[in-house]
Structures are given as C-alpha cells and as structure tokens.
Amino acid sequence: MAGSLFFARIKAHVLEVTAAVPPGRVLCLTDLADWLDVPPRHAAYILSQLTAEEQLAVPWHRLVPATGIVSPARTSHHGIPQRAMLADEGITAAPSGKLDLFAQVRIRIEELPLALPRQHRPADAPAGAPRRRRRT
Predict the structure, then answer these.
(1) Kind and range of the H or E element at 100?
(2) Which candidate among 36, 55, 83, 135 keeps its CA 20 to 30 Å from the CA of 77?
(3) Residue 5 in 3-state DSSP?
(4) Would you give the DSSP letter of residue 69?
C-alpha cells in the first residue's frame, strides 16, 4: 500500500487537512478519516511515518484521538512530546492525558479553510478492512 498511487493521494490529503488546523485547536483523527473515506488507522499510520522534515512542515501534533487523550509516548523525531507541543499553543492536558477543555479546542473539519471536498473511496482502490461508519 505504501508505494501505491492511492497511498500517495491519501497521504497528500492527510497532510493538506493537517496543515489547515490552526494553532490552539485540535482535530480528531476519526473526523479526518471520515472526511477522506479511509480507516482512522490509515491516517494515524501516515502521521506516524512522517519524516523529520515533514513533522517540521505540518502540525501533526494537532491531530488527536476522538477520546481527547494524548499519549505521553507520542513524540516528534526531535524528541519533543506531543503534549508539550500542544501546551506551547495553550492546550493543556490532565495527568491522565485527557486534553483540558477538549470540546472547546476541538475543531470540526467543516470549519477548516479547505479546498479539498469530502472524499469517496474510488471503486478501484485497494480493498481495506471493513470500517464502521460513525454516526453524526
């Protein structure tokens, strides 16, 4: 999958949406995945595989799980914890990792200044594991 044209397209879209998340706000990975019509683990995988240069160019730290809990183990290639990067933008977390004021700092993808419309998986895309549709 990592070498396919589909993967390259999805990665480009993940980076485009991630770049649109403003400082002081977070976007849920499930919202991103739903917008791109891919499983959340695919979006998370792409973000986990960013090079050091990509991490400097894209605010990957603003993408969080729908639980609002940020793992203390998640760090940049430069060793900076995601929690510290969020704290630098005014987003703090409880000792459990749950983001303080999560509902207030969470941004909906529809609020982002994007030119990218909601995506739909092409019929000829590689088959992935079945995914559950979120209720909205």
Answers:
(1) none
(2) 36
(3) helix
(4) B
**pLDDT tens digit string along 13-33?**
999 999 999 999 999 999 999
Is domain 5-107 in CATH 1.10.10.10, yes or no? Answer: yes
Residue with the two structure tokens 């991630």: 18
Residues 27 and 106 sit within 8 Å (Cβ to Cβ): yes
Tens-digit pLDDT profile for residues 32-75: 999 999 999 999 999 999 999 999 999 999 999 999 999 888 88
Q: Which residues of 40-65 are buried (b: 16+ CB within 10 A; e: fewer)?
A: bebbbbbbeebeeebbeebbbbbbbb
